[in-house]
Amino acid sequence: MENTAASPTLKFKENEYPCCTSLTMGIIGGKWKTVILYHLINDKLRYNELRKCMPAVTERTLSLQLKALEEDGLIKRTVYTSKPPLKVEYSLTDFGKTAIPLVQSIAKWGDLVAKNYAK
Fold it and tell me: Relative to the CA of 88, which of 46, 47, 101, 119 has its CA 20 to 30 Å away?
């Protein structure tokens, strides 16, 4: 991992990033994306199940974050139409699964902060 001013920009999808950290935060940054990924590590979840896991997120924000994660290829949205009512599940893609160690590290650090540094 090199940090020089002459480093070329990194590209992901149609976006350019000045460094690897910027690229990572561009994909999973923000208040809810990492939380969504965390909840999908072990399970496929429906929209309302995700809402129950994250009661503070608004429906609009959750929908936008799910769409962004899907567009970036981290999660898969599967629609089951075989019988009513319509069922939609979200799960990690193979690409999304590559973020599991990162998400787990973020969660572990959050636990450390809550236990040792929060007053």
Answer: 101
Q: Is the peptide bond before 85 cis (omega within 30 degrees of 0)?
A: yes
Do residues 65 and 33 make contact, with C-beta atoms less than 8 angstroms apart?
yes
Cα angle 40, 70, 53 (rounded to 5 degrees) comes to 30
Closest CA to 90 of 76, 107, 74: 76
- Take residue 52 and report the two structure tokens written for it: 């129950």
Q: In the chain, what are the domains?
A: 31-116 (1.10.10.10)
pLDDT in tens, 92-106: 999 999 999 999 999
Residues 76, 9, 15, 64, CA torsion sign: positive
Q: How far apart are CA 94 and CA 92, in angstroms?
A: 7
pTM listed for this prediction: 0.88
pLDDT, tens only, 19-73: 999 999 999 999 999 999 999 999 999 999 999 999 999 999 999 999 999 999 9
